[in-house]
From TrEMBL, chains A, B:
All copies of domain CBS, residue ranges: 616-684
Membrane-spanning intervals of the chain: 104-125, 160-182, 311-329, 357-377, 397-417
PANTHER family named in the record: CHLORIDE CHANNEL PROTEIN CLC FAMILY MEMBER, H(+)_CL(-) EXCHANGE TRANSPORTER 7
Designated name of the protein: Chloride channel protein
Family annotation (InterPro entries): CBS_dom, CBS_dom_sf, Cl-channel/antiporter, Cl-channel_core, ClC
Organism encoding this protein: Caenorhabditis japonica
């Protein structure tokens, strides 16, 4: 598919993609009769009006343009005469069977390798935490000595500097991987995957070096204490695994394994990328159904039963494998207990009452408003960042600054907030030494346990700990700090997901909401702030990303229970509705910021009544059924189009200003033209020796609509 | 869309749907040049070849034809000039918003009313069981006296005759509802819903009288002890609810509430029917995600994000409401504990090991083979039934016979098999009096508990009871008997589902498989036959219906756990693959038997290389842009087509045998023509007074492709 019309703004150094440089036709303006010229005038006025509106919008919103860097993927099956001949051969059924078997094989491998990547990331994060807590901090704290604690701040400064230094080191690795190796590996990768699944070829998005930068980078940025999750990057990693395995070769390594050649086209690759993305979600949350629904919801322009079933297979294999590896890593080899990377824990008390529904709806409203605020601020921040932090060193410096501030704020909060709870109040809290901080013996610092635990552990403890585990002040401060830090972190040049930080911030204010409800209506027993934390987490995340179906499924699967399905769903629905009043989802906003020409589900409001022929040029770069090689080469040199329509004839029309194209005969891809020229598949024409030849010709009327690389 | 080409065989009393009775054109055969006639000859030969193949297949397989009773639904949006004018009006955005709000409202109502129907069925079955056990049997058994039991068979004969008589009474009600009120209410209704969702207008499938017959009938047939489930009919009921509420009127009652007029077209109605079907699944199994996936998998020809989200909403509301009602019915009002109608219970021991995977795969193979056998036998049986049991009385008699034999076989087995287990071996078994039968005090009859419990309770006890609860003989006999009875029952004229009977039969042989594994490898501890029962149940059902994605989700949700997701999925995959070697799924087989012209996902093998223009007639019943009313009336009288292409011109072509149609301008529906005639929207033509008028005219070039009810 050639460039999309309408919003395209081409950069100055590329040629106009809609201009035919070698059509050999002047624009003829013979006003043969009044009616024709009147119609033309009307159309020209419309065009002028449209272009004026377009110019206006360009002036006011300079980022509202689309980059010409992106081309479409080619999903058309070239059903040409060669293909149909092959179909009639006796072994064709066997070939189909073999391809079908290979699809399943590839999906199996995608599941396994995605799980390996997930397990790698998880284990790396685990080790880095181990080093931080058990080696550096334990050593320093023990050196400070028992008697000094709580009195000498100087020793704590040493601890803090060591802590921040270690964080900065890891974040620097992550940032350098993104800045110097694979820029596309920055962020969560979900916007890029969404574009890819909807048919946009994003350069380098599914390369091996992107995968390596992403996997190592996200382990470093999460290990480095940033407000970042490993779940979004897992989805991107799964997608790269899907693309890589199905193609049987790697551009980054320059290796071609020579397998799965039948899948080397955009259509098959897109299918496997969607399976990989589903496997990524499945590995990240232990949510195979959620993974499938994610791929369907985000890559929503296709739906195919068999493909969905294979996606489901990949997801299941991925969840299964990651559990197997992690059970082996944790010393319980062979047991396939179900966890995934982000395990939200099981709610003991699974019941809620009808009168709690309005409260959940209110949480949805709050989540929608906060989510919209987050998106607005993050979009503005990203715009400023594009302008003012554009150099490589500047971006590296910003990453280090974020890491330092994140670490410093955590320590500052622990200094400032005095929320000591007796050990035993919260059975889910792990009592390592750092959590004690300034508290007396037999107590632990609730603030420290929130800030210094694994983010997933913090989510679990907000969901499941008893009502008095966290003070209201702790929750307010934690929620605001995490909100702001996440705002700052999402968009810097490190691989970083949004899911866990958004869930954490939401869980904190949701829990606070639950505590307030409990104080306001003391007569009602059975309020469990953990449920409100769950609702708040869902609301905050839903308000930011505006996903609905898949997020409900993911939350249900990550909590391993469907009891809270209805409240989660209502919360997500309300959060999306409220958020959509203000702005669009964060991923869509970032897609816009990257100037990607994606077509969403719904047409933009303004364009509802505009027909395609109003915004598309009619003098396209077309080919006739017989073309000279010279013209083909000229066209390939002077345009970047991915494909060209093949028409009956390109002739001057006596009455219209446009050439008379006759009827559309088919469509030929740039890659097919290259292949034909490479293999010199054209006919020498004896009569004129200096011009190469008849190049392309349809043999038969049957070819109508099916022209392709014959 | 007009009638589909190819496999259509029209019945003798209807006219040829492809013949244009009033085109006013003879077929011209002017062989203008050699090339043309050669091409024509070649085509005629192809046609002859094709028609010969077609005739052959007709001779060998007489049911391989399609009935002309079915027409397509009209999914096209008629985007005509009126519509576009309305779109430009200032209040148009408000209208869109109102329609969107109403869609959600309707989906909410669909959820609530589907749940009400589900609760009604459940409560009716409960009462009928109550009458049977607590009134009739308890009275009779107590009359027989304690001392006689086990010695006098005479008294048991009385009990048996009362039992069978009661069953026959209920089944007679169900059968009469189907035979005399709504024939379409027979069976599970899933094949019909599948057709409807794929665009076939099945007469009366979504009428209120169908719903009532279905709901009351299924309560009677399940209460009457048939091997029938209430889950399939629930899906059909949900679909009817969806259609009824969205249309705001009822044909059966002749009432028009005058609401939701904007949804009175096939496209909107199909969407709401899919939401209703999803809500039905959700209510039946407590599986909201499974419901959505069911609608997507079965009605797979569409996928739309917003629609999916509304389907999910309906499903959630439905699950929620049914739980609320049933919790109130069971005396725990207000608690939204999650059950649904078919509750498979929770597995206590949730773990399995990697080496068990091959065993699950083997179960999948067995399930596939048994499922294919079931489908083969049931298809043959249905064919014979169509021929030999065609009278209404004959069908009623068959239903009564099935009811009597089902009851009798149950008693016979209890007489023949002596499987007494001490009470306490199986804590899940309910110990009502009938279960004791001939056993000593302190024991109960395992056979009786299988045959006389609610089918859902039997499934639960096969899944969860300890290893020694059932003897191997009991399981073999029960499995075979249930298999055969289900085979006989599915297709008789009562509303009856297939899910629970298939699950029961599969659970029995799956449990047996588990016991055998345990005996073969006594060294391995931890074999839980309940897990194998689950796998067997899934395999048997999957082998019969060949559903995959949705069935996995339903099983996962009905067992309230995702731990067994992978084994269930593998089992279903293998069962489908193995079954597909032999024949197609039972629902598809029944669709074929009903001669419905459905187009599946994959083209039939033979037709892979056939182009549409080979099988479709080219001299269609077309309209010109200006037509006389007389011709329109004539066409409407003489054809049954749902719509007509509008073309440039219908003129004799000088060279071709077909008329020259010019270009296709659009498509006009039969219903739109009726509306236009009804409201006399046509122009009187003064020049010729005896002919009514110019009837239809496109005003503008813009109309191209968008002709409709202007």
């Amino acid at each position: 598919m050639a460039a999309r019309g309408g919003r395209i703004r081409t950069s100055s150094n590329s040629i106009d993609p809609n201009e035919d440089p070698v059509a050999g036709l002047e624009r003829v303006m013979s006003s043969s009769n009044l009616q024709d010229s009147a119609r033309r005038r009307r159309r020209r006025e419309d065009e002028l009006l449209f272009s004026r509106q377009f110019d206006d919008s360009e002036r006011t919103d300079s980022h509202e343009a689309l980059s010409a860097r992106y081309e479409s993927l080619n999903y058309e099956v070239s059903e040409n005469s060669l293909y149909r001949e092959a179909e009639k051969k006796p072994y064709h059924q066997m070939t189909l069977w073999r391809i079908s078997r290979n699809r399943w094989l590839v999906c199996f491998l995608i599941g396994v390798f995605t799980a390996l990547v997930a397990a790698f990331i998880d284990i790396m994060v685990d080790y880095s935490k181990d080093i931080k807590f058990n080696w550096i901090l334990k050593y320093l704290i023990s050196k400070c000595g028992e008697e000094e604690r709580g009195t000498t701040a100087g020793c704590m400064w040493t601890v803090m500097i060591a802590w921040i230094g270690y964080n900065c080191l890891l974040v620097a690795i992550a940032a350098m991987l993104v800045i110097y190796v694979a820029p596309i590996a920055g962020g969560s990768g979900i916007p890029q995957i969404k574009c890819y699944l909807n048919g946009i070829a994003i350069p380098e998005v599914v390369r091996l070096k992107t995968l390596i930068s992403k996997a190592v980078g996200v382990a470093c940025s999460v290990g480095g204490g940033l407000c970042a999750g490993k779940e979004g990057p897992m989805i991107h990693s799964g997608a790269v695994v899907g693309a890589g395995i199905s193609q049987g070769k790697s551009y980054s390594l320059g290796i071609d394994f020579g397998v799965f050649r039948e899948f080397r086209n955009d259509r098959e690759r897109r299918d496997f990328v969607s399976a990989g993305a589903a496997a990524g979600v499945a590995a990240a949350f232990g949510a195979p159904i959620g993974g499938v629904l994610f791929s369907l919801e985000e890559g929503a322009s296709f739906w195919n039963q068999n493909l969905t079933w294979r996606m489901f297979f990949s997801s299941m294999i991925s969840t299964f494998t990651v559990n197997w590896i992690l059970s082996w890593f944790n010393g319980r080899s062979g047991w396939l207990s179900w966890t995934g990377l982000a395990n939200f824990g099981v709610f003991e008390d699974k019941e809620y009452n009808v009168w709690e529904i309005p409260l959940f709806l209110l949480i949805g409203v709050i989540g929608g408003v906060l989510g919209a605020l987050f998106n607005y601020l993050n979009t503005r921040l990203t715009e400023y960042r594009k302008i003012y932090v554009s150099s490589k060193l500047g971006r590296l410096f910003e990453c280090l600054l974020v890491a330092a501030v994140s670490g410093f704020l955590g320590f500052l909060t622990i200094f400032a907030v005095d929320d000591c709870q007796p050990i035993g109040v919260n059975p889910t809290a792990t009592s390592n030494q750092i959590n004690r901080m300034w508290c007396k013996k037999g107590e632990y610092s609730a603030v420290a346990s929130l800030f210094f635990q694994n983010p997933e552990e913090s989510v679990r403890s907000l969901f499941h700990s008893p009502i008095n585990s966290f003070g209201a002040t702790t929750l307010i401060i934690f929620s605001i700090e995490y909100f702001l830090l996440t705002l700052w972190t999402f968009g810097i040049s490190v691989p970083s997901g949004l899911f866990i930080p958004a869930l954490l911030s939401g869980a904190a204010w949701g829990r606070l909401f639950g505590i307030i409800v409990e104080r306001l209506f003391p007569s009602i027993t059975g309020i469990d702030p953990g449920k409100y934390a769950l609702a708040g987490a869902a609301a905050q995340l839903g308000g930011i990303v505006r996903m609905t179906i898949s997020l409900t499924a993911i939350c249900m699967e990550a909590t391993k229970d469907i009891t809270f399905g209805l409240p989660i769903m209502l919360v997500l629905m309300v959060a999306k509705w409220v958020g959509d009043i203000f702005n669009e989802g964060l991923y869509d906003a970032h897609i816009d910021l990257a100037e990607v020409p994606i077509l969403g589900w719904n047409p933009p409001k303004m364009s509802r009544n505009i027909l395609a022929d109003r915004v598309m040029r009619k003098d396209v770069v077309a080919l006739e059924r017989r073309e000279r090689v010279s013209r083909i080469v000229e066209i390939l040199r002077s345009t970047l189009h991915h494909g060209f329509p093949v028409v009956d004839r390109i002739e001057e029309s006596p009455i219209e200003s446009l050439p008379d194209y006759g009827r559309l005969k088919g469509y030929i891809l740039r890659s097919q033209l290259f292949k034909l020229l490479e293999n010199r598949i054209f006919v020498e024409d004896g009569s004129s020796s200096n011009l190469p030849a008849d190049f392309y010709e349809c043999q038969d009327d049957d070819e109508i609509g099916n022209v392709g690389g014959a």
